[in-house]
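I'm curious: can you give me some protein's one-letter sequence along with its C-alpha cells because I've never seen that pairing?
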Amino acid sequence: MEMEADTACAPENRAFLASSTPNWPKQTACNALDLWLGPLLGSWSLLDVAASGYGRYLLLRNTSSASPARQSSSARLIRTLSSAAIATSNKVIALELGVSNATVSEDLAKGLAALGLESRIELIRLMRGDALTRVPFGFRVRVEEAQGARWAVLAIPVGFELLGTPFAPGPNAILRGLLEGKTTEAIAALRGTSLATIFNQIAHVSNLLQVSSRYEIVRAATLWTRVLPLPEQLPPTIQERFAKRAVGLIFERLAECTPEKR
C-alpha cells in the first residue's frame, strides 16, 4: 500500500510534490534526507545493498527509536561524514571532535557502509562540496508499508561524466582518475608512465586548483562533473532481489528528490 504524504512536510517540499510526476510516490520527497541518514540515526535498518548500471540501491526497514547512547554515537558519525564530505582530513576531524585518528577512520568506514557508499571519494563526489545537509543530486526513493512495517528503497547515482575543464588533457586524465578513486599506481598503469611522473602531475593539478590534498582535488573537480541520471523504473534484478527480503513487496517506480538543504 502506498503511504500518504507526510503532513509535516516543509512548504518547499509540498511545492515539489505538487509539481512532481503523477506516477511518483508522493510521500518520498518529504523525508529523503531522513531516510538516507536513517541507518546512521538508528531509525532505519539497512538490509541490503545492490548495484546496477550507474546506481547503488539500498533496501531499508523502519526500526524503533534509537537509544540515547545510539543518538550520541549517530551525531558523531554524521559530523564525521559531513566533515569528510567537504574534504577535511582525518587529523583535523579528530581534533574537531576530540577523538583519535583511529576512531575517525572507524567511524568513516562504518558511516560510509551505512550510506551505501564504497569510498570517501564517492561521498565527496556525490555531495559536490556540501556537508550532509541534503541528498545527492539524482537521488531516488520509494517507501511502502506492509505487515505493520515501513520499507524503503533508495537509489544513489554513483556514475558521473567529466565535462569540459579549463585544463590540458594531462591534468584532465589525472582529475578523472582521482574522481574515480583510483590509486597512484592504477593511474600510472593506465597512463603508461612512472609513479614519480604521476606524483608530479598530481602536484601540478593541486597547484592549478590551489588545494593541498587529493580529497580537495576531488571536491574542486566536481565543478566539472555531471551526475549520470538513474531510471525511474527500478531494475528488474533489483526488484526481484529486494522482494525476497521485503515480504514480497515489489518496488517499481522511484521518485527523484530535490537536493534542497534543511
User: Anything to note?
Assistant: Residues 11-159+228-256 form one domain. Residues 1-30 have pLDDT under 50 and may be disordered. The first strand starts at residue 44 and ends at 52.
